[in-house]
Design a protein that fits this description.
The complex is a heterodimer. By secondary structure, chain A is mainly β. Chain A has strands at 3-7, 10-12, 18-25, 34-39, 45-51, 58-60, 68-73, 78-83, 92-99, 103-106, 109-112, 115-118, 122-126. Chain A has no helices and 13 strands. Classes of the chains: A mainly beta, B mainly beta. The A-B interface holds A 37, 43-47, 59, 61-62, 95, 97, 100, 102, 104, 111-116, 118-121 and B 32, 34, 36, 42-46, 49-50, 53, 55, 87, 89, 91, 94-101.
Chain lengths: 127, 107
């Protein structure tokens, strides 16, 4: 079965740290761009971070840049998000999501057209 | 950053009716727009990519259209399981942003 399973969420005080994990199975993890997307209670989805195969390209949203670090272990087929200096506004369900393998290229850069596989999410509460 | 605006915020319909949802981008995203369905307590599910292409396993009653800044998701002949929140997502310009969602609920 193709799936993503997040873990590591919980309650943490402002200024604290948390490390989220996402275990992938059923597909060739090492070939996919992976993402973290979050959703604050009652709010819309917000992209947080992306990491390419071999970790050659990493991106962060401005709201987490300098505080969060994304990484991957292709041998363990796992994605991670190290979250430091947590704030109340980081409270959200955090999803890991896979880029689709259908995409387009603009010049030398290529992008997928959607996030086609999502985990069930893990809740992070900062209070 | 591209801002996606969705309307209406809530759509109250009965099974069998047609839902028409709108997503407007603050600047052109070409055709690089996706739609997701999300039910309470569940992860988003990809419905449509590249404005009009149905994802694998998505019923034909879901259709997408549009280009540039204006996009539409149409759900024909609503089934009970279609009552959910629908979000659009642009994949044209970093950072890739999401709309706030439209809730389709039962009248």
């Amino acid at each position: 079965e193709v799936k993503l399973v997040e873990s590591g969420g919980g309650l943490v005080q402002p200024g604290g740290s948390l490390r989220l994990s996402c275990a992938a199975s059923g597909f060739t993890f090492r070939t996919y761009n992976m993402n973290w997307v979050r959703q604050a209670p009652g709010k819309g989805l917000e992209w947080v971070s992306s990491i390419s195969p071999t970790s050659s390209r990493i991106f962060y949203s401005d709201s987490v840049k300098g505080r969060f670090t994304v990484s991957r272990d292709d041998a363990q087929e796992s994605l991670f998000l190290q979250m430091n200096s947590l704030r109340a506004e980081d409270t959200a369900v955090y999803y890991c999501a896979r880029d689709s393998d259908v995409g387009y290229c603009r010049g030398s850069d290529c992008y997928s057209l959607a996030l086609d596989l999502w985990g069930q999410g893990t809740m992070v509460s900062v209070s | 950053e591209i801002v996606l605006t969705q309307s209406p915020a809530t759509l109250s319909l009965s099974p069998g009716e047609t839902a028409t949802l709108s997503c407007r981008a603050s600047q052109s995203v070409g055709s690089y727009l996706a739609w997701y369905q999300q039910k309470p307590g569940q992860a988003p599910r990809l419905l449509i990519y590249d404005a009009s292409n149905r994802a694998s396993g998505i019923p034909a009653r879901f259709s997408g259209s549009g280009a540039g800044t204006d996009f539409t998701l149409t759900i024909s002949d609503l089934e009970p399981e279609d009552f959910a929140v629908y979000s659009c997502h642009q994949r044209s310009i970093w950072p890739f942003t999401f709309g706030p969602g439209t809730k389709v609920d039962a009248k």
